[in-house]
């Protein structure tokens, strides 16, 4: 009996040891599986991070970035010139304020077409097609305006320039927004837009007031710059075909347009309405500041033209300098601070009826509203999938162009 009991106890001890051994073996296996899964996830994340292109990698991106920056300088020169040219267009054609305001309304038609067709153009021709088609359209518009045609022809052909700039706005914002450090790069790109808008009133005003040239001669310069933009853009983006774009930006590889899908997103509409207000403020202020300073603040033509230069210079500085501060404090808080500061300087501009005070206030106003557009683009690229970026940004920019058209119209 004792022997039997001893045998049973020995068997039980053996079973317990076996179970313990089995349990010890299972835990390390589970830990090994977890470690392998974690390592695999980290490896996938590392690959995903490394897949994001940078401004200098692949190397061709350096040349593409230079071409895009040059295109945005031209873009800014186009928009910034209106404020300096409007008083002379009005005088040359003997127009009222309201009729002269059509130069702001006409590009909106082009922006609307750009919002509709920009995504489709990407799918068909890729970024190479965008880099060629847009500046060619501007070149045609500038050549026509440089011939000093009747005013209805000027208004009509500006729609073609608006189409070109709308396509550029959507395409290059979406591309830059997809790169690493997008906030800083977009700040630089839009800062160069501001630089173009800064120097164009200075050039136009000098040509007219000092050189005694017709307002349309400014577009001789713009024609030459558009030709250079065609060459630089085509060379930089020649390998970016429609097939390549579709493969990279459509998960199923199909070339379906995304404008309908992007309009179903609440983010698209919020950003569009926000830009309606912002772009309307920016373009109408930059467009009418010269007339305001001449007629209301009683300034001389050249000094008044320099206030437009100061406004766009403020925008340039704001986009470059504050563009590096915005990502550190977050887009939402940064934009709120910028808007409050801009409101304060707008109140000073309006309530203090002195030329110098108004000129300084409008420059500081430009400083704080400068980073708002690129910050909005960054938010869109963060909240929407890459395949919707061109369509969503194009639509938002078109609605913003509508704000520029409506806000800039002066009553008769």
Classify the beta-strand content into a percent band.
Answer: under 5%
Global morphology: globular
Please state the average pLDDT score. 82
SSE arrangement, N to C: HHHHHHHHHHHHHHH
Number of strand segments: 0
Q: Overview of this structure, please?
A:
This protein is 84% helix and 0% strand. The protein contains 15 helices and no strands. The chain has helices spanning 2-51, 60-93, 97-100, 102-146, 151-177, 182-210, 218-236, 242-249, 259-263, 266-295, 301-329, 331-351, 355-369, 372-383, 389-408. The longest helix has 50 residues, at 2-51. The protein is globular, with a radius of gyration of 29 Å. The N and C termini lie far apart (120 Å).
Q: How is this structure best summarized?
A:
The protein has about 400 residues and is an all-alpha fold. It has 15 helices and no strands. The N and C termini lie far apart (about 120 Å).
Features:
single chain, 412 residues, mainly alpha, disordered N terminus
List the helices and strands and how they pair.
Layout: H1 2-51, H2 60-93, H3 97-100, H4 102-146, H5 151-177, H6 182-210, H7 218-236, H8 242-249, H9 259-263, H10 266-295, H11 301-329, H12 331-351, H13 355-369, H14 372-383, H15 389-408
Helix pairs in contact: 2-5, 2-6, 2-7, 2-10, 4-5, 4-7, 4-8, 4-15, 5-15, 6-11, 6-14, 10-11, 10-14, 10-15, 11-12, 11-13, 12-13, 12-14
């Amino acid at each position: 009996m004792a022997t039997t009991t001893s045998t049973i106890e020995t068997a039980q001890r053996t079973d317990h040891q076996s179970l313990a051994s089995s349990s010890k073996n299972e835990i390390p296996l589970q830990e090994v599986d977890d470690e392998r899964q974690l390592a695999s996830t980290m490896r996938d994340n590392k690959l995903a991070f490394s897949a994001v292109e940078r401004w200098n990698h692949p190397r061709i991106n350096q040349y593409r970035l230079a071409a895009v920056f040059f295109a945005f300088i031209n873009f800014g020169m186009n928009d910034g010139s209106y404020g300096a040219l409007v008083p002379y267009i009005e005088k040359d054609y003997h127009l009222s304020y309201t009729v002269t305001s059509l130069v702001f309304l006409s590009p909106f038609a082009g922006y609307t077409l750009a919002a509709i067709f920009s995504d489709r153009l990407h799918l068909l021709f890729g970024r190479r097609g965008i880099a060629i088609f847009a500046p060619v359209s501007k070149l045609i518009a500038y050549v026509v305006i440089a011939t000093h045609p009747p005013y209805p022809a000027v208004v009509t052909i500006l729609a073609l320039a608006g189409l070109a700039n709308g396509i550029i706005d959507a395409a290059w914002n979406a591309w830059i927004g997809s790169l690493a450090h997008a906030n800083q790069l977009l700040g630089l790109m839009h800062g160069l837009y501001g630089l173009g808008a800064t120097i164009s009133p200075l050039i136009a005003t000098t040509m007219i007031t000092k050189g005694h040239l017709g307002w349309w001669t400014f577009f001789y310069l713009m024609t030459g710059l558009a030709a250079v933009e065609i060459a630089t853009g085509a060379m930089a983006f020649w390998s970016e075909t429609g097939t390549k774009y579709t493969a990279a930006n459509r998960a199923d590889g199909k070339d379906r347009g995304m404008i309908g899908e992007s309009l179903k997103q609440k983010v698209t509409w919020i950003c569009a309405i926000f830009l309606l207000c912002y772009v309307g403020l920016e373009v109408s202020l930059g467009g009418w500041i010269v007339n305001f300073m001449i007629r209301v603040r009683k300034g001389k033509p050249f000094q008044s033209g320099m206030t437009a230069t100061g406004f766009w210079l403020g925008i340039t500085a704001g986009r470059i300098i504050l563009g590096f501060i915005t990502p550190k404090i977050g887009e939402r808080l940064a934009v709120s601070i910028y808007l409050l500061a801009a409101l304060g300087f707008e109140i000073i501009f309006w309530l203090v009826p002195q030329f110098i005070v108004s000129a300084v206030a409008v420059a500081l106003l430009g400083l704080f509203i400068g980073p708002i557009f690129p910050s909005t683009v960054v938010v869109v690229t963060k909240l929407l999938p890459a395949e919707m970026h061109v369509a969503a940004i194009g639509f938002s920019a078109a609605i913003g162009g509508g704000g520029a058209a409506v806000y800039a119209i002066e009553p008769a």
